[in-house]
Amino acid sequence: MAGEPQDDCLFCKIVAGQIPATVVRETETTVAFRDINPQAPTHVLIIPRAHYPDIATLGAAEPGIAADLLREAGEVAGEEKLESYRVVFNTGSGAGQTVFHAHAHLLGGRGLEWPPG
Ligand code: 5GP
Ligand code: ZN
């Protein structure tokens, strides 16, 4: 069923506490934790507890939870005292998505060039 945990999904395992992560914020619908391979001084992933493969399927099925990710990105940015930051949803392998459980990257704490590579 849509949104149910997937046995082979790394981020479902983090949500379930089966794989450790440095969690910085949690809500009823979301978990935010530090990326294991940070690309900036602050690099936090914000994910829905429910399993959807990417932001497009999450946004179509559960727009409220997609909005929760954006609110939480702003909350984490505030806690990290970031004046400037970027929120990114890599969608599809051609855009660099490697984990197919929807997630926002929150990046900050250094200059971020635009346009990105
Ligand atoms: P994507 O490439 O799918 O947009 O982002 C996946 C992110 O998950 C990558 O930035 C990668 O470093 C991070 N990641 C992969 N495995 C783990 C893990 O086991 N723990 C944590 N905290 N991050 C992970
Ligand atoms: Zn999952």
For this structure, what is the CATH homologous superfamily? HIT-like
Radius of gyration: 14 Å
CATH class: Alpha Beta
Strand order of the largest sheet: 1-2-3-5-4
Protein name: Histidine triad nucleotide-binding protein
InterPro entries: Histidine_triad_HIT, HIT-like, HIT-like_sf
Detailed description of the structure:
26% of the residues lie in helices and 21% in strands. With 117 residues, it is an alpha+beta fold. It has a single domain (10-108), classed as 2-Layer Sandwich (HIT family, subunit A), CATH 3.30.428. The chain has a five-stranded antiparallel β-sheet, covered by helices on one side. A hairpin with a 3-residue loop joins β1 and β2 (30-34). It is globular. Residues 6, 9, 11-12, 51, 101 line the site of zinc ion.
